[in-house]
Amino acid sequence: MVFSSTIYLFVFLPVVLIVYYNPVIKGRTFKNIFLLFASLVFYAWGEPAFVFLMLLSILVTWFAGLKLQKTYSKIILISVIFYHIIILFIFKYLMFIVSQIGLLINKDTSAINISLPIGISFFTFQLISYLFDIYYKKADAQRNPFYVGLYVSLFPQLIAGPIVRYEKIAKSITNRSETYDDVVCGMQRFIYGLGKKVLISNYVAQIADNIFDYLAGNTSVLMAWLGAVCYTLQIYFDFSGYSDMAIGLGRMFGFSFDENFNYPYISKSITEFWRRWHISLSSWFRDYVYIPLGGNRVKKPRWILNLFVVWILTGIWHGANWTFLLWGLLYFVFLLLEKTSQFAKKFINTPFSYFYTILIVIITWVIFRADNIKKAVLYIGNMFGIGVTGFIDSEFIGYIKISIFILTVACIGCTPLLKNIFANFRKKGMEWIESVWLLLVFIISLLQVISSTYNPFIYFNF
Question: What radius of gyration do the chain's Cα atoms show?
Fold first, then answer.
């Protein structure tokens, strides 16, 4: 079940809100148990078998957390983390390794198939962060297994994040308050996210899919760039839209989730980009991998190794493909250059630094999107005039004619311009303008959801 589906918008969410805010049973225990039940139904809707895998991991982690609270044993911590990594490895990476071995020994491994549980990387990282927060005494172990289950399975952030730290939500599980303002602000944030996903991401996704899937050298330079730019816009509005909806839904139920995006495409360096993009993942690797390894408080060779480990793991986290590994490795190289090269340090403060950053981001998204490294290299070659029919073609002109409005809106949406405009209206007491805008976005989004069957979510694969 996805947030932008008819079953979710017209059945699941209204029913959950009505039962949660019913005027008869108002106790916190009831609300928490009901939210847990609703979250399990939400996950089981698309993954009926894998919900038991998630429940098993929750129970193992809950029990380990109680033991860890008493002993703070590193053996317990490492053992349970190893369990989670093994589960993640089996379902996410084993098939890839088997297929690569099959290629080496010339054996067909297509008969072996292991389905990937939706959102396994997200809820696994949350379970691991729960253990770390107990071990580092940032939070106490939860004695009630249902509440550990609620933390992990809470449906707003279950299958595509943001990755929520236990220390930041522990008190909210048992001691939170829901206000009228929370519900209203949560709904507003949800509508913004729904509009991003349905009206922009889904539209540019079709262009990107058409170009990436059928590009075979018989194209122009601008056509290749159009596909790359559309995918760059798609993945931002897809994931940030989902994060907006998750944050908004969380607030409707009294939870406060941290921001996951902060206009990353206006960054003037790769370092800044990763402070603005998928913030919950970046901070997770920083706090639970980079800093425990020594961070930058060690000698330079060890610091470089620490940085390398983080970015290799970041690439691997995104999927079982050599393209993700290369993607993470390239970001390691660019970040290392920015942090060590005097020329790079001076360059990123110039007016050209924005163009350098967005160029690197677009090219690396091509690698991220490609089926394999060979296709990525061919595509990037097309972008720079290698193996193309010319600089421009009639197909590119046709796409631009029908898409220029949405592409313009998308580019503006990558900046805080609209946010600042509505902030100025609020200062002048003209909040109704934003309300009318949100109502219009919501109506158009609902019409699009009803009329369209094309509704992919990129990060469901992770």
Answer: 23
